[in-house]
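Reviewer 2 asked us to include a model.

Predict the structure of this chain.
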Amino acid sequence: MAQYEEISIDQGTDVAITMDCFDETGAKKDLTNYTVYAKLKKNYNSEDYTDFTTIINNPTTDGGITLSLTSTQTDTLKTGRHVYDVELHFIDSDGNTIVERILEGRVQVMPSVTK
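Predicted model (C-alpha cells):
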C-alpha cells in the first residue's frame, strides 16, 4: 500500500520534491531498471492532469527520486485541493510490467498575489 502525504505548492513557483524509497526490509530500494511516473489532478475523476517531471537520482541504488513542476505548470493550476500519486514501473525478465504505487495524497495549491 502506498504512503500518504499532503503537499503544499505555491502557484506560479518552481517545485522540487525529493523522496527516498525503501524496500520491505527498510534498506534503500535499488531503482536500477525502474521508471517513475507521477500525475496531479484536480480530483480523481478529472480527465485533465499535470505530469510531474520525474527523475531517479544517481546512484540509482540509493532509492532517491525527485518530482518537479515548473513555474509555468504551477501557474496554470487552480488554487485549492488536488490529488496526486507516484508509481514505480519495472519490466521483469519475462517482459511483464510490474507497477507499484509508492506515494499518494493531496496537494494544496496556494494562490499567488504577484504574477
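The chain has one domain: 3-110. Helices lie at 71-76. We have added this to the supplementary material.
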